[in-house]
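Handout, page 2. Input:
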Amino acid sequence: MLHASVPGFEGGYIGVDVFFVISGFVITRLLVRQPERSIRQNLARFYVRRIRRIVPAATVVLVVTVVAAYALLGANFAPQLLGDVRWAALFGANFRLINTGSNYFIPGLAPSLVTHYWSLAVEEQFYLVYPLIVFSILRVAPPRIRVRILAGFLIAAVVASGWWSYHVTAVNPVVAYYSPFTRFWQFALGGLVAVIPVAWARRTPIANSIGALVALLAIVVAAVRLNAYSTYPGVLAWWPSGASAILLWTGQSSARVAPATWLSWRPLRYVGDISYSLYLWHFVWLMLPLQLVHPIASPLARIVEVAGAAVCAVVSYHFVENPIRRSSHLSRDPWATVLLLVICLVLSWDATLLIGRLANVS
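Output:
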């Protein structure tokens, strides 16, 4: 909503916070349900699946973005984009943005066409270390207290990272917004919800339904009330993040008329299925027209751009994401997935080198 400039939803950037909490919830559930294998085997399986799920689609969008920018922007082509794409390909876009002092919210400043890759980078940086911690706890701790120890770790992570986010927001808002250390608490919060016994939620389905409705309303109000001038993330990030955690918790057991039922509607589930591809494609569709020598900006143009991003997302989901993620060959051969990762990195960097030569920049 923020990137599409939807009137009345200036706080649409909270979608990232909601996503981080959901991601922590989903991945933690996945990790704790892994069979009894060695830590090395579980880590290998996790990272191989992660590569197949994330990297190919991200690479396609990076290559298309840099080629489209060179072809369409002409004199407005920003050489800095080449470096941005290289960092994004290495899942370091957030550090790139910190180093360049970039900010979503500076009026009149055209953002990099891969700015949105910062949240993907933060997510992958978290999952670079988190699975090792989870698998180590599950492997070493006595069975009866494994979940308690994991919950204790997650509580400590929420407290430490949450405090650091509050502290850094007042000192350096750009670092606070993009740093993994000021965002890890949101993943940990989702993970904490995932390890709380589901039986507890099943005791109060009616109360859960009311809580879910309030949480959903809180997220909507946050998107409406927050804006570019809000001190963020800091304490305010608890608003959408806490509401998302409540929505996840209550959704495990609630009445039929509760938000969990609405959100399970098949069309909404499909939007959720293609959400990763939509996340990847939306930014270039919405921002590239604004950076043309003769910018295109109108309500009709926005509708066309959103539709274009949706079409690309559907195509990407069905012809890039799913075939690679569900490939039986890649599932059987982990080294083939490693080779796929290398190929994707090479493609991204080669695209920047080629465009750099054509544009006479490094």
